[in-house]
From TrEMBL, chain A:
Subcellular location: Endoplasmic reticulum membrane
Family according to the record: Belongs to the SPCS1 family.
Protein keywords: Endoplasmic reticulum, Membrane, Transmembrane, Transmembrane helix
GO BP: any one term: signal peptide processing
Transmembrane helix listed as a keyword: yes
InterPro entries with a match to the protein in the record: Spc1/SPCS1
Task performed by this protein: Component of the signal peptidase complex (SPC) which catalyzes the cleavage of N-terminal signal sequences from nascent proteins as they are translocated into the lumen of the endoplasmic reticulum. Dispensable for SPC enzymatic activity.
One GO location term (cellular component): signal peptidase complex
Entry membrane topology: Multi-pass membrane protein
Source organism: Phanerochaete sordida
TM annotation in the entry: 27-46, 53-71
The protein's name: Signal peptidase complex subunit 1
From TrEMBL, chain B:
Any one GO biological process: signal peptide processing
Lineage, opening ranks: Eukaryota, Fungi, Dikarya, Basidiomycota, Agaricomycotina
PROSITE patterns, sorted: PROKAR_LIPOPROTEIN (PS51257)
Top-level taxonomic group: Eukaryota
One cellular-component annotation, GO: signal peptidase complex
Mode of membrane association: Single-pass type II membrane protein
Protein name according to UniProt: Signal peptidase subunit 3
Main localization category: endoplasmic reticulum
Family statement drawn from the similarity comment of this UniProt entry: Belongs to the SPCS3 family.
Amino acid sequence: MDALQAKIQSIFEGKIDFEGQKKVEQISRVTLVAAAVVSFIVGFALQSLRATFVIFISANIVLFLVVVPPWPMFNQHPVKFLPAKSPSNDKKSS
Amino acid sequence: MHTVYSRINNVSAFLSSCLMALLAAIALSSLVFTADPKGILDVQSLNIYEGHTRRYHNRWQDVTFVNFNLTADLTPLFNWNTKQLFLYLQAEYVDAKGVKNEVVIWDRIIHKKDKANLSLNGRNKYVFRNLGKSFKGASAANYTLKYNVMPYVGLLTYGEAARTGPLAFPEKRTEVA
């Protein structure tokens, strides 16, 4: 029961590692700025606000699909913890 | 950015900033379009009759009837950020007491570019009466066609498309000819 709960929780939390977080940050920043600039230019060229917002909104839907779920590419650098020290060593050092 | 919720939060926060910048750019882009189209407005006839006042039916008040002819190509005012155009015909005169009056006697809303090339015969849509009892002593009136461009994003802009020379108010007529 607890294992199932933990599994469900991890699916909903969708944790990614530090490298993945950096990647997400870069992707979202570049995509959002580019989407705004490109949609403005295309809309202005075509003289159509509809074109502007279709481009901007579809770029954002794609961005959310790429960035929000914990895809495996954001989990390729898991944090490696040092091996736990044995309790006897711990007592000597303190 | 480590969980789904923090990613949604972060991305949508920056998304809203980008959206605001995009909207500001669209609003500012309207400044590039400086079309100032002109049309021709002819007042074909002016008639004054007596009518009942709006509130008291035993009192009488002068009512002016204006027939006009209008040709104007306002399609240049439609750009990507134009939602609609509000057109209005305005009579401007100084009444006997020296007060300047601007009375809207006709208007039209244009939603589409292909309906902005106007050529029409019209008459006043709204009752044209002076605030006093009659137009006696009022100066000659100018009739102007003005427009108000309503954008999707940004500021309303006003302009004038046509103007007639001063036209004196005629004598009151007692019978409908």
